[in-house]
Amino acid sequence: MRTSIATVCISGTLEQKMLACAKAGFDGIEIFEQDLTVSAMSPEEVKALADRLGLTLDLFQPFRDFEGVDPATLAANMARAEAKFKLMGRLGIDTILLCSNVGTATINDDALFAAQIRELGLLAADYGVKIAYEALAWGTYVNTYLHSWRIVELVDLPNVGLCLDSFHILSRGDDPAGIETIDAEKIFFVQLADAPVLSMDILSWSRHYRVFPGEGGFELDTFMGHLVRSGYDGIVSLEIFNDVFRQSNVERTAVDGMRSLIWLQDLTCTLLGDGAQGHPLQIRALPEAQRPDGFDYAEIRTEDPEAVAGMLAQLGFTFRGQHRRKPVTLWSAGAARIIINTQRSRGITAEVSGFGIQIPDAALATERAAALQAPAVPRHHTPDEQPLHGIAAPDDTEVFFGTSAAEPPWAVEFGHPHTTETGLITGIDHINLAQPWQAFDESVLFYTSTLNLAARPGTEVPSPMGLVRSQVLRTDDGAVRLALNIVPHGLENTTDRALRYPEHIALHTDDIFALARRAADAGMEFLAVPKNYYEDLAARFGLDAPTLAQLAELNLLYDRDEHGEFLHFYTETVGTMFLEVVQRRGSYDGYGAPNAPVRLAAQFERNRAMQY
């Protein structure tokens, strides 16, 4: 499949955009007119740079507000168009995007639309230009793709066809199945965009909230399935508008876009099954996706391991030894394994730096991740050590693929043999990772595509630092759960301790009261919960006085739904991380979201107090 991306999607100068798109592996680009207008490069220099980079210049866009106008306006539009056709000749671009009129149309007449576009098409033919007519979802008179197709049929010129844009089709709730009824040779161009499902006017939705495929709520694999079955064999491009991408690193955004197209092809192949074979669009499947079996370990990086090691010991973890040749230690409790790593840790008090997942075939998972352009994280190993396959996430978290086993092969490198542990901690329940605001959507796509996790609906939680957006990614059985929290804008690199957003590792137990008492007896400092919280619990759930007293004594938090109960507590924060212990009763499957504001406020107050 030939891939392209509109230059409007990413930040930087036109030259920077072209370099980033070529490096990310795109076949071509759409030139957004404004990017050319403000560029220091001449059209000839743009063409020459594209040739050197191996990029095709696929589309010049947009040409707006043409049809449905009076004769005088039409004459002015034709003169404007001819100037653009000449410019396209200098660029070497043979296709222009014509958007349905949203501003100057005053006459609602399909026959007139077709006649005026036909006149434009005849002029374009003189310059060797094709016109791709696109129905904007907010077009004055033409706002559905099947309506634009009827007009193209009326025009009846070989150089006038359609541009199909997934956003303009799906945002209106139109059925994309009609794509299969369109003559594939008259589909000149295809643009893709995803978007979160929102209730707002379509124009604002389009301008501020479009994202790459896999980062929103549209069923783009279904859209692509209809496109494949239509017989279309042309370019599939990305056209994204939002308030984040134009402020983000240009190279990372380009890679994110390419990853979304690779992932979408794989989803479409899965959807079509054997029906994906033999179609001219030639979509490609990835190496087989595997379901993770669970967490292999969680890793904490710290310059001084004593504080973290002390917390683990208080929770009942056993020291399993130091790696035979690295400054790395292993602690375990039940199926939970925590690595404390002091390598490359100068100046780091403590942070969640990575995790491992157990998967049936680590080599195959690594191959899939590489195909999705996930950066590799090399870990040196000697011939007698277990090789580790790692990738770097957009937030720099290191993710490693390990063998599915009760005792991973690498554990012997820490000296102590495995012993059956029957302590109160049973395993890692979930890992919570803080995401920079500009990398949140990228991270969602990264983890869902490389780790085969499903994204659950997001939530928003108020905190003293601002509104925190959270989204859970997980396997169907909950064996692997990641909670991604977006750091409020402006706090990514703050030096104010009270405003730093912490990450955490959540551990599971079947007896949280016994574990909390043992940890308290061992000297653990819990995150203090205000008394007002327990008064509210009594009002909301009608808990009896003895239960409330136990919860308050141990600083435990509580939630309940129709499926079961959830009890949890938090340790104090060390550096930018802390530990959580949870107990799930019945079929409770959440994360105690109603308690998150309590935790965030308590951590804020604690951090602020430590500054003085």
UniProtKB/TrEMBL annotation:
The VOC domain, residue ranges: 427-572
Pfam families recorded: AP_endonuc_2, Glyoxalase, Glyoxalase_5
Catalysed reactions, semicolon-separated: 3-dehydroshikimate = 3,4-dihydroxybenzoate + H2O
Obligatory cofactor(s): a divalent metal cation
Pathway(s) it belongs to: Aromatic compound metabolism; 3,4-dihydroxybenzoate biosynthesis
Keywords on record: Carbohydrate metabolism, Isomerase, Lyase, Metal-binding, Pyruvate
GO biological process: 3,4-dihydroxybenzoate biosynthetic process
Cell wall biogenesis/degradation as UniProt keyword: no
InterPro entries: DSD, Glyas_Bleomycin-R_OHBP_Dase, Glyas_Fos-R_dOase_dom, IolE/XylAMocC-like, VOC_core, Xyl_isomerase-like_sf, Xyl_isomerase-like_TIM-brl
Residues reported to bind Mg(2+): 430, 504, 580
Entry EC no(s): 4.2.1.118
Molecular-function annotations in GO: 3-dehydroshikimate dehydratase activity; isomerase activity; metal ion binding
Superkingdom per UniProt: Bacteria
Keyword Metal-binding carried by entry: yes
Residues annotated to bind a divalent metal cation: 134, 165, 191, 239
Function comment: Catalyzes the conversion of 3-dehydroshikimate to protocatechuate (3,4-dihydroxybenzoate), a common intermediate of quinate and shikimate degradation pathways.
PANTHER family in the cross-refs: HYDROXYPYRUVATE ISOMERASE, XYLOSE ISOMERASE-LIKE TIM BARREL DOMAIN-CONTAINING PROTEIN
The family this protein is said to belong to: Belongs to the bacterial two-domain DSD family.
Protein name: 3-dehydroshikimate dehydratase
